[in-house]
Design a protein that fits this description.
Blueprint lengths: L2 H11 L2 E6 L3 H13 L4 E7 L9 H4 L7 E5 H9 L3 H4 L4 E3 L1 E6 L5 E5 L9 E5 H13 L4 E5 L1 E8 L4 E7 L17 E6 L5 E7 L1 E4 L6 H5 L4 E18 L5 E6 L4 E6 L6 E10 L1 H8 L3 H12 L8 E2 L3 E10 L3 E2 L2 E3 L5 E2 L7 H21 L7 H30 L3 H16 L1 H12 L1 H5 L1
Helix pairs in contact: 2-6, 2-10, 10-11, 12-13
């Protein structure tokens, strides 16, 4: 066997381990992307600190008025299509065939249509529980991936090739048939700690932190983040209106901030919609606990009468809005992904879709490192990934960051310019098509 044949044999037989800390929508998605792009010798382990709740009956969940939802862009559709998830997901989604953008008490407005792009939809709305169920089913069907619930990384230490991580899990009973911990990761052996938990030290070639904006693991790695408060809160709720809407999403800019209504799968003769309403903290708290009549009146006053008053109102939740950005996204053997990397204002629903484009690009660069034998945590390829993603991240974050403030400023000259800009999207087809491609993330995928 010559030197080249020997090298190829070593590379093909090399075994690598990737741990994804975070079993949410981004963590499960990147696990599927990695399994699709990497050879079976690369083992992928998803660790989720929360216990897995019992699987929901999808038919009953589809009419839920208290479920959170996520807007999926056209670029996210393309990514899920590539990993064979879309076929099972599509029947559970509400398509967005047009988007109506307007300002309260101003003449400027625009309506964007999927047909102008030759698309079936501009985007889709997924209820998070249903999306998570589909992703988890797909992950558990992959022999290359294991998932552990009720498991967290308690400590990390750098090694010559990646990290040594210590994971801990509760001694409590498993939830609804899902194990608290699957001992499938390469391990130096479990041990019991003084507080009754079980600990296991494991060697990892690549650690992906796909946690929330307040990620403890990101902090444990010594990676700082920037947090900029918007001094606003988001009020979210699912509600219904009489009659069926034609898959229209609404974005309404008010003096307090943007108000979005997104279509959900219909229930009977009524249209279910997901509300995301940006408000000052005191007003958000007041409306969260207001009566149905008082809430409906305030909503109609800000949104207008085009849908009438809501006939059903689900549970209302309120949370503060901040822009959170990790000061580092890559190190040797480590990547920060999802909300742990950048948590955006929800005005345009771009946060999850930006993370999906990050994940798709990451897999392409990790694959290169594996193919040449340097492993998935090679800093050369991880740094190249970070550089390649910079423009899209900066543009998307700036747009999500600046758009609400732009429409809230009361300058009269600026108000006229904003109205003309919105009207211009209707009057100039080329401008409208460019705006849609940027908002859908397609331009970023092609750059």
């Amino acid at each position: 066997m010559d030197e080249l044949e020997l090298r190829d044999t070593v590379v093909s037989e090399a075994r690598h381990t990737i741990i994804i800390s975070g079993g949410g929508l981004v963590g499960l998605s990147v696990a599927l992307l990695l399994a699709e792009g990497l050879p079976p010798s690369v083992r992928i382990h998803v660790l989720e600190s929360r216990g897995r709740a019992p699987a929901n009956d999808r038919e009953s969940c589809a009419g839920n008025f208290d479920a959170r939802s996520t807007a999926l862009s056209y670029s996210t559709y393309q990514i899920y299509e590539q990993i064979n998830v879309w076929r099972k997901l599509a029947p559970l989604l509400a398509p967005i065939k047009s988007i109506h953008v307007s300002r309260r008490n101003r003449f400027g407005s625009s309506q964007l249509h999927a047909v102008d792009q030759g698309w079936d939809a501009l985007g889709w709305v997924a209820e998070n529980e249903l999306l998570a169920d589909v992703l988890l089913d797909a992950v558990q069907a992959k022999d290359q991936i294991s998932v552990s619930f009720g498991v967290k990384i308690s400590s990390v230490e750098p090694t010559a090739t990646g990290f040594s991580v210590t994971t801990t899990c509760s001694d409590g009973e498993p939830m609804a048939g899902h194990p608290r911990s699957e001992q499938t990761v390469r391990s130096d052996g479990p041990s019991a700690s003084a507080n009754g938990t079980k600990a296991s030290k494991q060697s990892v070639d690549l650690l992906i932190v796909a946690e929330g904006a307040g990620s403890e693991l990101r902090s444990r790695l010594g990676i700082d983040s920037r947090r900029t408060s918007y001094r606003q809160h988001a009020l979210i709720a699912n509600l219904s209106f009489r009659g069926t809407q034609q898959s229209i999403a609404f974005e309404r800019f008010t003096a307090d901030g943007p108000l979005a209504l997104l279509p959900l799968p219909s229930s009977g003769n009524e249209s279910r919609m997901a509300l995301v309403w940006t408000l000052p903290q005191d007003k958000a708290a007041q409306l969260q606990h207001a009566s149905h009549e008082a809430f409906s009146s305030a909503l109609v006053q800000e949104f207008g009468h085009r849908l009438g008053s809501p006939t059903h109102l689900g549970e209302r939740s309120v949370f503060p809005l901040s822009l959170v950005e990790s000061k580092e996204q890559v190190r040797r053997g480590c990547v920060i992904l999802g909300n742990a990397a950048h948590s955006l204002h929800p005005v345009a629903g771009q946060g999850f879709n930006l993370s999906m484009r990050d994940a798709a690009a990451l897999v392409a660069y990790v694959k290169q490192g594996v193919e040449i034998g340097s492993g998935p945590g090679d800093l050369t390829y991880l740094s190249a990934y970070a550089t390649a993603r910079l423009d899209d991240q900066v543009q998307t974050i700036q747009a999500s960051d600046q758009l609400p403030e732009l429409f809230m400023r009361s300058d009269p000259v600026l108000s006229i310019a904003r109205d003309l800009a919105l009207a211009g999207l209707d009057l100039i087809p080329q401008a409208r098509r460019h705006f849609i491609r940027e908002a859908a993330g397609n331009a970023a995928l092609e750059r």
